From TrEMBL:
Any one GO BP annotation for this protein: lipid metabolic process
Fatty acid desaturase domain: residues covered: 47-292
Keywords: Membrane, Transmembrane, Transmembrane helix
Protein's UniProt name: Fatty acid desaturase
UniProt key word Membrane: yes
Coiled-coil features, chain-numbered ranges: none
InterPro entries associated with the record: FA_desaturase_dom (IPR005804), Fatty_acid_desaturase (IPR012171)
GO cellular component: membrane
Organism: Minwuia thermotolerans
Membrane-spanning ranges: 21-43, 49-67, 83-102, 153-172, 184-205, 211-229
UniProt GO molecular function: oxidoreductase activity, acting on paired donors, with oxidation of a pair of donors resulting in the reduction of molecular oxygen to two molecules of water
């Protein structure tokens, strides 16, 4: 058996869900989120600024809830598909990302990530990029638009709340043949109207907006950053389809985002992204265990927290140099020619 096959086989030892860990993570994540939001509502009667001070904590719990939804989308969090579907849908009422539609879209990402010949298009600017040659071939207007939409402030601060709060309310990138997923978007919206409508009638719509909007904005920004940097950075690679295989892509086109323990807890170990891509059925609460069990799994592109913030600048793949580059680097290389 090849070393690559051995590595994938090794991860299967960790894909069995542990129900007590899944239940505990669900209770602490939902419980922490609801408790923090309740405290924000109580404080908002005295000072909106005091309430807002708790928004980052609530956002952290919401990010953790999204990681649970993510695991449920891979049928990895619990052993049964029904349990994953129920918990995943419950998560989506807080994350605002329609579960069934998001799950199928995300499954597509796992088949093509960092494959230059099967790049995603459309709204997902985080799972794709242009090569330097393709970027230079664009007209000046299209080049400026591409660069503007990939600017860190636009892509990682302005767009995430727009996507989660606005665009996810419509099946904007869901094929018409995905009837079940499109219907699920509308069912999610009806549930959200009932939930937030009831909360607004009980507490006041202004109070609900004051608490929930800042939390959602922060959580969406953090969540998008987490997922986008996991395939970026100077040392991650893209490959043509003929040279692409899932194991090499897991180990060289995904990263290990090394986070402090408290951030690792709130982000549900998603920093072990190479392990996740190697075997999406490994639940998040077993990713670290799997990572540390095999030396070969630690030989991957590694990002510190600081590296993670820098990684969002890498927006183009330079085929000649075989690495990701920034727009500035691409421009400088073009001037030297």
């Amino acid at each position: 058996m090849s070393p690559q096959a051995d590595l994938r086989r090794h991860t299967r030892r960790f894909q069995a869900p542990v129900p007590r860990k899944g239940i505990a993570q669900t209770l602490t994540s939902f419980g922490g989120f609801f408790a923090t939001c309740a405290a924000m509502y109580l404080l908002s009667g005295y000072s909106h600024w005091a309430a807002l001070a708790l928004a980052p904590l609530a956002a952290g719990f919401l990010v953790r809830i999204f990681i649970i939804q993510h695991d449920c989308g891979h049928y990895a969090f619990f052993g049964g598909r029904r349990a994953n579907a129920i918990v995943g849908f419950a998560c989506s009422l807080l994350t605002l990302a329609p579960f069934a539609s998001w799950r199928r879209q995300h499954a597509g990402h796992h088949g093509i990530w960092n494959d230059l010949d099967r790049r995603q298009s459309g709204a997902d600017i985080y799972s794709s990029c242009l090569t330097v040659a393709e970027y230079r071939a664009l007209s000046p207007v299209r080049r400026a638009w591409y660069r503007a939409t990939r600017h860190p402030l636009v892509a990682n601060v302005l767009l995430p709340p727009l996507v989660f709060i606005g665009l996810f309310r419509f099946p904007f990138d869901t094929p018409r043949t995905w009837k079940r997923e499109r219907r699920a978007v509308h069912i999610t919206n009806l549930a959200l109207i009932a939930m937030f409508g009831g909360l607004g009638l009980l507490l006041g719509f202004g109070e609900v907006a004051t608490v929930q909007l800042p939390v959602m904005v922060l959580a969406s920004i953090i969540g998008v950053w987490l997922f986008s940097v996991q395939h970026r950075g100077e040392n991650t690679i893209w490959a043509r389809n003929a040279d692409w295989d899932p194991v090499t892509a897991s180990m060289r086109s995904s990263t290990y985002l090394r986070l402090p323990a408290v951030l690792r807890w709130f982000t549900g170990n998603i920093g072990y992204h190479h392990v996740h891509h190697l075997n999406p059925r490994v639940p998040n609460y077993r990713l670290r265990e799997c990572h540390e069990s095999e030396p070969a799994l630690r030989d991957v592109p590694t990002l510190s927290l600081r590296d993670g913030f820098r990684a969002i600048q890498y927006s183009l793949w330079d085929e000649a140099r075989g690495r990701m580059v920034t727009f500035r680097e691409a421009a400088a290389a073009g001037q030297r020619k």
